[in-house]
Predict the 3D structure of the following.
Amino acid sequence: MKSYSISAKVEDKEIESTPKNDDKSEEEINLEAELTSALDDHDDEKRKNKKLSKLRNANNEEVNILIEKFEESRKVVNELDEQLSLKVIENSKAELQYMPMFLFDYAFLLKSDGT
């Protein structure tokens, strides 16, 4: 930044204004401003990446929970399927036990009809 020193002569009403040179040149000041801006951008990028990492971790946790729930549901479905299969087998065995009697009764009825 430039600062000015002002001197005035009251008698002549002459005002002198000259720029006062600081220790830093304009190039150094511009370079410092660019570096500060770059650091701010870098910090912003780090904050964004940190937020994205948190979101990604949260999503991964949710996915893992959904996978666990799916696996539990699949286990339950497999157990129910197995129980149903066993029940069907038991029912089939019971039906097969009565089948010979049914066939015998049916054959007897056919004979008694005269056919």
